[in-house]
Amino acid sequence: MKKLLFLLALSFTQLSFAQNFDIRTAPTDKNSKNIFIKENAPLVIANGNKTYLYASALNVNNIQSINVFKGENATNRFGEKAKNGALEMTFKPETQLLNLQSFYLEYKISKENQSLPIVLNKHFVDEKEYLLLDKSAIFSVKILDEQPFVEPVLLPRGKAIYIEAMEMK
């Protein structure tokens, strides 16, 4: 039921907030697709933490409730970043959400490596300050010496922090 609610809210936001979403799908394995929304994406507020869907890995099984805001209601409530609407999500109390700094601490990312680009499920997170991860959704975290992804990631070659996580379906 929660997955259905989330998918309905996501579909609603895609249809009602803007006509020009930049929506791309990229196969991550033969049985799934990764939804990647970037331009004109609605703001996501998860337990008070601001993020975007492309900068987050959230386990839909941990969602307690979702509220959808659009137009002036969204900007009055959450500011200019919500000009394309907002999804406010409340997670179960036992859910451990990690922002950028708590992610670095939890996965012992050295100060030296904290300046590296972050790649989440083969997608570059260009606004690292909006990174938000449900710890239960993370499969692995690696420092790659050479990030091998070309499409749709457009990163300079070199080291990167790679996060493999559950995808919202």
From TrEMBL:
Gene3D superfamilies: TonB-dependent receptor, plug domain. InterPro entries: Plug_dom_sf. It comes from the Bacteria. Keywords: Signal. Residues 1-18 form the signal peptide. The keyword Signal applies. This is Uncharacterized protein. It comes from Cloacibacterium rupense.
